[in-house]
Design brief:
The complex is a heterodimer of chains A (1066) and B (440).
Chain A: H1 40-43, H2 47-59, H3 61-68, H4 77-80, E1 87-99, E2 111-121, E3 126-132, E4 137-141, H5 148-165, E5 175-185, E6 195-202, H6 206-217, E7 219-221, E8 225-227, E9 231-232, H7 238-245, E10 253-255, E11 260-264, E12 269-271, E13 284-292, E14 307-316, E15 324-330, E16 340-344, H8 347-361, E17 365-368, H9 371-385, E18 403-411, E19 415-423, E20 428-431, H10 432-439, H11 447-455, H12 464-472, H13 475-498, H14 501-512, H15 516-522, E21 533-534, E22 559-561, E23 565-570, H16 573-580, E24 588-589, H17 591-597, E25 604-606, E26 612-614, H18 622-643, H19 647-672, H20 681-705, E27 717-722, E28 725-729, H21 735-750, E29 759-772, E30 775-783, E31 786-793, H22 804-819, H23 823-838, E32 849-852, H24 865-876, E33 887-892, E34 905-906, H25 908-914, H26 920-936, H27 943-948, H28 998-1027, H29 1044-1062
Parallel strand pairs in A: 3-11, 5-21, 13-17, 15-16, 17-20
Antiparallel strand pairs in A: 1-2, 1-10, 2-3, 4-6, 4-9, 5-6, 7-8, 10-12, 13-14, 14-15, 18-19, 22-29, 23-28, 23-29, 24-26, 25-26, 27-28, 29-30, 30-31, 32-33, 33-34
Helix pairs in contact in A: 3-8, 5-6, 11-13, 12-13, 14-19, 16-18, 16-20, 18-19, 19-20, 22-23, 22-26, 23-26, 25-29, 28-29
Chain B: E1 17-19, H1 37-58, E2 64-65, E3 75-85, E4 117-122, E5 125-130, E6 144-151, E7 156-163, E8 182-186, H2 198-208, H3 215-222, E9 224-230, H4 248-271, E10 274-277, E11 307-309, E12 314-318, E13 321-326, H5 329-337, H6 343-352, E14 383-389, E15 393-398, E16 404-411, H7 413-416, E17 418-423, E18 429-433
Parallel strand pairs in B: 2-3, 5-7, 8-9, 9-10, 10-11, 13-14, 14-16
Antiparallel strand pairs in B: 1-12, 3-4, 3-6, 4-5, 6-7, 8-17, 12-13, 15-16, 17-18
The chains are: A alpha+beta (1066), B alpha/beta (440).
Chain lengths: 1066, 440
């Protein structure tokens, strides 16, 4: 550990402010992410403003006292006396531009980049460590024959060009120095081990990009003329550069530095996350939610609508209950047990109280649902609208304002998303919505449906038009709102705990070596700094490079297999291929070199896709080496996981092995990513071509060996093969036999592959329904006596644009077919459901289709059902109509012949209230038929005829709408309950003909009533349960809730049925 | 046998009868969009007034608070509705859950779990209850109690003592010297179902109507003054009625057992007064209070003025002795969500809680009343019976103010062949067992 005794520095306000500096405009826009220089003094507020804030804080002493009990633990004397070095877990790294530190860096002056590392010690103290002396740099390859004089000349020329490009910058020296170093490019196999490179060190991080632009375009050199240079490592973000060079990985423990401290980068020690250092520091996690009072018919806008409540929960990492629960409300609010309710008279006070709260609590991680896009920007913009200049000081750096900027994040994996980024210095933001959207495929990402999915809990949903009413009521109604707000703040925390996000992401950061915030905002990338290798900054050729052939899929022999199907899986196929064949940037031999170098054939591999790579005896590849490390580490983590007893330790290790697995697989991924850091299609296409070869090879071996000719009882058959697995029907009838043969086959075939490629036997599917490639379902067995679960792939169970009916129908059918082994039962079930649909007996909530309204009607090019409906609803009642951002639920109703589907969408509530008939044919043809036929076609002959056109489709019942024109002219008359004949005067219930069947007809009516009553009771008490109160009416209007429409319908049906029943009492 | 043989004819004893079912009749009430919060509200108000009057003697020194008024560490008394948070409680949302578990759910007989906890709620808010004194296994959602305790730091209310409303006041038991008069309680006839034994049932009817046995037995039969059938008289095969349209053939099959029952009831009603209550399997509505079985189901017996179709729960007075009973739903539901040594204990608890069906509406279907709670027990019955139980049990409990209550669990007749006879003179009771097995 390095020596302590560093002097504690005064708050960074002491910086003399250099004259205004324009931000260097990043020249290269093609990069996804570029460094952005933020000048410390830009975000700081001026002296007089500060004194104003201080005064303001004094005035609010009472509040401050209230908040003070939540401050972090006081420093022990060791820390205060600065006699010990500090060990802390790093969470976030960024950099600012400030004046170089005079004591630490006596030789330099002018603005310099200061790396800030934020973290937490194991005692729970927060730490900000300012690291000085780390300079941005990149490489270019040194033109041959360049001597020291040429370099200094080159330096001057470059400096001049830089000055031209950044005219209004007052940096004294742009290019600090240029050194001659020996490095080697990672691209292509080279026989000599290193070449001369020039390391260009610049003053500020953004200048890397600016300088690269100059060099790319070409520079006039003495004796060489105009020459452009390929730059190396010029697209590495500065913070990452620092982490790489100092060997720091994300979320790792570091020693040195105290609370706020300055040091030189050379004095940091990074500890590998093992043993003691793998434990998590007690982070403070703040989960919060705000409520705004929107105007009727409008989504809240920060320029108009006040923030009325902010609920906060703070939890220490590793504990299961929050230790702070409070809510800040505008206007009075009745107390809530176990919650600190703070009421204020003005919005300004609410906002400032929240700011003070953040200061006192000093959270390390801020979580919430949609906080990055909504809550945080809303607070900041609202403060702007109210002209509260002192509000946006939320970061760890004293008096530094947070910055808001629009960002887009795009990646092949996750698509392009627009979002706002609120940079809160030193606090990691972890927006559960973003994480959900990225890590899980769900039909809806509303907090309600996400918590229903993961926590099996429905959340009460209060429509934003009601929020204003509650706010304008009294202290009691505002309390109601506060309880709701608190629940919204609590759910993200519970999701975080339940899904172990902190463990998984911290481990991912440790493994990939990037800060957590990078993982969230930027996807994964992996760093490689090895052995003097440098990465060229390859100009992206965009789509010209084309794509390569993907993974192979063996033709699926669709069918319903009632014999066990053994599955042979390649363990980490792509990483193993890269290791087995030494595939890497640095082992790739260019076609010219193949001719020139005359490599002996025994030391090269020619891949099935035609590329040449040298074997490891000539040059060991970097990627295989990284992969070996990752896989070995995963093996270790898995072994440790088995040993581990402590649940927290287990969580850490499990997160780690998962992260290692993902990282190993992503190594292949970034060679193929055309917009990645260093794509190399030669590698990725070679990998997949090997993959295809192995699958084919396996199929051949299995079918050659396991035959009756070779003494086996049955001849094996490969029915399907996917990217890294092969499904084999060995023909045996028990799971146990299939398992034995599967193991035998795996072992036999593994022997024929180059190490470490390995075929493993994992599971048996029995029975197995193979529909087509990438679509199958089966029972999953890993032990011979009991199946583990039902496994489905590619079958309509989670598609967003399907109604619930499809999902339920498919699930129940699969259940009946696979688990109950009752095919006739499944057929009957489908028929019943179709009949119910045609007979108008289907529960409406099963038919609701939901789509998000992302923009207004005019912006859509094609007319869409949900957009048209939103428009129509706005005409009916603007206050309750869906707004942009809302999800619009609709059903398809019967309409005039030839009406377009988008004209036939209707609000389910409106349908219920007016008895509007739905269109069963639409549901039958556009929703149900395809998925159902897919399942049944391998099983039944004439599936379509049998299921969709049988006798059960003959009778149809359609309800009469109560709002249609013709009903205005209709006269209502009582009909006989038994036979629907019109009743003559004097009879109220039955016609004289049906009188004799009185008892049985009464039974029928009363049975109907009794069923509805049961449903009514169960539905409404469930809603009471969700809202968490017995004595208050249910307000919830969550249309995502599966029982919302049923509840409404039950209420309406009940009233009607009761009237029918009452007719008997005349 | 015939009546003509009895010259010195035995005369059936008479009694006075007054129905107290009015509170349980829904009448013209309709579903207008009202919710269940109102019945809880009404219950809390009724019970709170009562409990507040008791608290002044129970804890004269301790202040009474609302849930909102709790202050950390301060001892106080709070009154509110209990809510039991139950992990295993079946939930209608589960019907929609995406992943059906492959292993079929074993339907537990009882939904309790060690993690269950109680919450006390009033109009203002909820507080979680802690401490060992209040056991989640005894209490259920919907009971109103007074609690003495204090709020701990974590937002829990640590309970030091529990006050239940206790047995309600009772009208005086008529003391004048009396003769033996008997009331017969029977339930679960299940006419038409596979386990009903027509011969056994006929024996029962012949016995109480005095068509069986010698003169001595007939004289005992003549002392039976009233019969109460406590639910589940008809056993309609469940598979028949499932919401699908029925063929007329099936419809008439439903009507068969009803006709059969009508004939049987006809025989009873001809001889002595009869009250019939609807039960969970009868052709009546589902929610409590269940409304009387429609007279059109019994064209024959309904012609007698001795035939009364009553509500469930059913309350009446015979010779100024008060009866209260249900067809069993209230106790069956308690058994699913709480624990006791026998059915009688559940019954006793409902009396002490002064609420006939605390789990309604939470887990027991119930009409959404707006301004009253008909299940509140205002006056203590002398006889409290529950039908359709597994076996006959009976016991007397006494209250602090001299209340004296006979608790009876009436078994299902179709399974046990047992009816229960209560003597109005002293409320002694015994089982009347009918068997058709011949010992060899």
């Amino acid at each position: 550990m390095s020596s302590g005794g560093r002097k504690r520095r005064a708050p960074p306000t002491s910086h003399p402010s250099p004259a205004t500096q324009a931000k260097t405009q990043a020249l290269s826009q093609e990069d996804d992410f570029v460094d952005e220089d933020v000048f410390l003094n830009e975000t700081l507020i001026t002296e007089d403003e500060e004194s104003l804030i201080l005064r303001d804080i004094e005035e609010r002493q009472a509040l401050a006292n209230r908040l003070s009990k939540w401050t972090r633990p006081a420093l022990s004397s060791d820390y205060v006396s600065q006699s010990c070095s500090v060990l802390f877990q790093q969470l976030e790294i960024d950099y600012v531009i400030g004046e170089s530190h005079k004591e630490l860096m006596p030789n330099s002056s002018g603005p310099a980049a200061i790396i800030r590392i934020f973290g937490v010690t194991k005692e729970g103290h927060s730490v900000c460590c300012n690291v000085h002396g780390f300079e941005p740099y990149f490489y270019i390859s040194c033109p041959p024959g360049m001597g020291p004089d040429d370099i200094s000349h080159f330096h001057q020329t470059l400096e001049g060009r830089m000055r031209e490009a950044n005219r209004n910058s007052n940096v004294g020296k742009f290019v600090r120095r240029i050194e001659l170093v020996q490095r080697r490019s990672i691209m292509y196999y080279q026989q000599s081990s290193s070449h001369p490179f020039l390391k260009i060190v610049v003053a500020l991080p953004t200048m890397v990009a600016s300088c690269r632009g100059i060099l790319d375009r070409g520079i006039q050199l003495n004796g060489l003329g105009m020459k452009s240079f390929m730059t190396y490592e010029s697209n590495v973000l500065f913070a990452l550069r620092f982490m790489i060079d100092c060997n720091i990985v994300g979320a790792r423990s570091l020693s040195n530095c105290q609370l706020e401290f300055d040091c030189l980068h050379s004095e940091l020690i990074s500890h590998a996350p093992e043993g003691e250092y793998s434990k998590m520091a007690p982070f403070r996690i703040l989960s919060f939610d705000i409520e705004c009072a929107g105007r009727k018919g409008h989504f809240p806008e920060p320029t108009h609508d006040p923030v009325i409540q902010i609920a906060n929960l703070v939890t220490l990492q590793g504990e299961d209950q929050p230790f702070i629960r409070n809510v800040m409300t505008l206007n009075s609010c009745s107390p809530i047990v176990g919650v600190d309710v703070m009421s204020f008279d003005t919005e300004r006070e609410v906002l400032l109280a929240w700011r003070d709260f953040i200061h006192e609590v000093d959270p390390d991680i801020i979580i919430g649902y949609n906080i990055c896009k909504f809550d945080l920007p809303y607070l900041i913009e609202r403060a702007q609208a109210l002209k509260i200049a002192e509000f946006p000081i939320l970061g760890r750096i004293r008096n530094s304002r947070v910055r808001v900027k629009d960002t887009t994040f795009s990646s092949r994996q996750y698509g392009t998303r627009e979002s706002k980024e609120v940079a809160v210095e030193g606090r990691v933001q972890f927006d559960l919505l973003q994480v959900m959207q990225r890590d899980y495929k769900l039909s809806s990402y509303s907090l309600n449906s996400v918590s229903a999915h993961f926590l099996s809990e429905q959340k009460e949903d209060v429509h934003h038009s009601i929020i204003s009413d509650l706010q304008n009521g009294n202290a009691e109604t505002r309390r109601r709102l506060a309880v709701y707000c608190l629940k919204d703040a609590y759910l993200p925390q519970r999701l975080l705990d339940k899904l172990m996000f902190i463990y998984n992401y911290v481990e991912m950061a440790r493994v990939t070596g990037v800060p957590i915030s990078f993982l969230l905002a930027r996807g994964q990338s992996i760093k490689a700094k090895q052995k003097n290798l440098v990465l060229p900054n390859v100009k992206q050729a965009g789509s010209e490079q084309g794509t390569y052939e993907g993974a192979t899929v063996l033709e699926a022999r669709a069918g319903f297999y009632e014999k066990p199907i053994a599955t042979l899986d390649f363990a980490s196929l792509y990483p193993s291929i890269m290791m087995a064949y030494n595939l890497c940037y640095c082992t790739l031999v260019t076609p010219e070199d193949v001719r020139k170098l005359n490599l002996p054939p025994e030391s090269v591999n020619k891949t099935p896709s035609g590329e040449t790579f040298v074997k490891s005896n000539l040059q060991k590849g970097i990627l295989p080496e990284i992969l070996e490390e990752l896989l070995a580490a995963r093996k270790r983590a898995k072994a440790d996981l088995k040993e581990a007893k402590d649940p927290l330790e287990k969580a850490v290790l499990d997160g780690r092995q998962l992260a290692l697995k993902i990282s190993a697989n992503s190594v292949y991924g970034f060679t193929g990513a055309t917009i990645g850091q260093l794509p190399c299609l030669e590698i990725s296409s070679s990998v997949t071509s090997y993959g295809r070869q192995m699958i084919e090879h396996t199929k051949k071996l299995v079918e050659d060996k396991f035959t009756t000719l070779n003494g086996y009882e049955h001849t094996a058959e490969v029915i399907y093969g996917d990217t890294d697995s092969v499904m084999v029907q060995f023909g045996v009838s028990t799971v146990e036999e299939a398992m034995n043969l599967g193991r035998e086959a795996a072992e036999y075939i593994s022997g024929t592959f180059t190490k470490p490629i390995k075929l493993e036997f994992e599971k048996v599917y029995f029975p197995y329904l193979l529909i087509s490639k990438k679509r199958y379902a089966g029972l999953f067995w890993t032990k011979p006596d009991n199946f583990d679960k039902m496994d489905t792939k590619g079958i309509e169970t989670v598609r967003r644009d399907n109604c619930l009916l499809v999902k339920n129908l498919v699930n129940d059918c699969l259940h009946k077919i696979l688990i109950d082994r009752d095919i006739p039962g499944a057929v009957q079930y489908v028929k019943n459901a179709i009949s119910d649909l045609l007979m108008n007996r289907m529960d409406l909530s099963l038919l609701v289709i939901t789509k998000g309204l992302t923009k207004t009607g005019d912006d859509y090019e094609v007319k869409a059902a949900h957009v048209e409906l939103a428009e129509r609803m706005r005409k009916r009642d603007a206050a309750t109509a869906p707004n942009v951002g809302d999800r619009v639920p609709y059903v398809i109703i019967k309409a005039a012949k030839g009406a377009k589907a988008y004209e036939r969408s209707e609000d389910p509530i409106y349908v219920l209230e007016n008895n509007i008939p739905i269109d069963p044919q639409y549901y039958l043809e556009n929703q149900i038929s395809k998925p159902i036929l897919r399942i049944f076609e391998p099983i039944l002959k004439n599936a379509s005829k049998e299921l969709l056109h049988g006798s059960h489709t003959r009778s149809i019942s359609i309800s009469t709408p109560s709002n249609s024109g013709i009903m205005k002219f209709a006269k209502k008359q009582l009909t006989c309950i038994g036979c629907k004949a019109l009743l003559s005067k004097g009879n109220h219930t039955l016609c004289s003909h049906c009188k004799g069947r009185e008892a049985e007809l009464y039974c029928k009516t009363v049975t109907h009533v009794s069923e509805l009553e049961m449903l009514f009771g169960r539905l409404w008490t469930q809603c009471q349960e969700c809202q968490g109160s017995l004595h208050q009416d249910v307000l919830c209007t969550s249309r995502d809730c599966p029982i919302f429409y049923r509840r409404k319908k039950a209420q309406k049906d009940m009233a009607e049925a009761k009237l029918q029943l009452d007719r008997w009492n005349f | 046998m015939g009546m003509d043989s009895e010259k010195n004819s035995l005369c059936r004893l008479q009694c006075s009868y007054a129905s107290l079912d009015e509170a349980f009749e829904i009448g013209k009430e309709t579903y207008r969009g009202q919710q269940y919060s109102q019945i809880y509200f009404a219950r809390l108000h009724l019970m709170r007034t009562l409990l507040y009057s008791l608290v002044s003697q129970w804890k004269p020194q301790t202040p009474v608070c609302t849930v909102l008024g709790l202050e950390q560490g301060k001892e106080c008394v709070i009154v509110g509705t209990l809510y039991k948070h139950m992990k295993l409680k079946p939930c209608i949302l589960d019907e929609y859950s995406k992943e059906r578990s492959a292993v079929p759910l074993v339907r537990p007989h009882n939904f309790m779990h060690d993690d269950d906890y109680l919450v006390l709620e009033d109009e203002s808010g909820r507080v979680k209850l802690g401490g060992d004194l209040i056991s989640p296994s005894v209490f259920v959602t919907g009971i109103v109690v007074a609690l003495h305790g204090k709020e701990t730091g974590a937002g829990d209310f640590s309970v030091l003592e529990v006050l239940e409303a206790g047995l309600p006041p009772q009208i005086e038991f008529p003391l004048k010297s009396r003769e033996d008069k008997y009331i017969v309680l029977v339930s679960g006839l299940n006419v038409g179902s596979s386990d009903s034994n027509p011969l056994q049932l006929q024996l029962f009817i012949d016995h109480i109507t005095g068509h069986l046995g010698d003169e001595k037995e007939q004289s005992i039969a003549s002392q039976i003054v009233h019969v109460v059938i406590a639910g589940n008289s008809i056993g309609i095969p469940r598979g028949l009625v499932n919401g699908q349209n029925l063929a007329s053939k099936d419809l008439s099959r439903i009507a068969e057992p009803i006709k059969e029952l009508d004939i049987l009831l006809n025989q009873i009603a001809a001889g002595l007064p009869l009250d019939i209550m609807p039960g969970p399997n009868d052709p009546a509505n589902f929610s409590l209070p269940q409304q009387p079985l429609h007279r059109c189901l019994f064209p024959g017996s309904a012609a007698y003025n001795t035939f009364r179709s009553c509500t469930n729960p059913h309350s009446f007075e015979i010779d100024n002795i008060r009866f209260l009973g249900t067809s069993g739903q209230n106790v069956d539901d308690l058994e699913k969500y709480s624990d006791a040594k026998d059915k009688l204990e559940f019954m006793e608890r409902t009396l002490r809680w002064r609420h006939l069906a605390p789990t309604a509406p939470n887990t027991l279907g119930c009409y959404p009343y707006t301004d009253s709670d008909p299940f509140f027990i205002e006056s203590c019955p002398h006889v409290y019976f529950v039908g359709n139980q597994d076996k006959y049990e009976s016991r007397v409990i006494k209250g602090s103010e001299g209340q004296f209550v006979r608790l009876i669990s009436v078994p299902k007749f179709s399974e046990s062949g047992v009816a229960v006879v209560v003597n109005l003179r002293d409320l002694e009771c015994h089982a009347l067992s009918f068997g058709t097995q011949f010992s060899s």
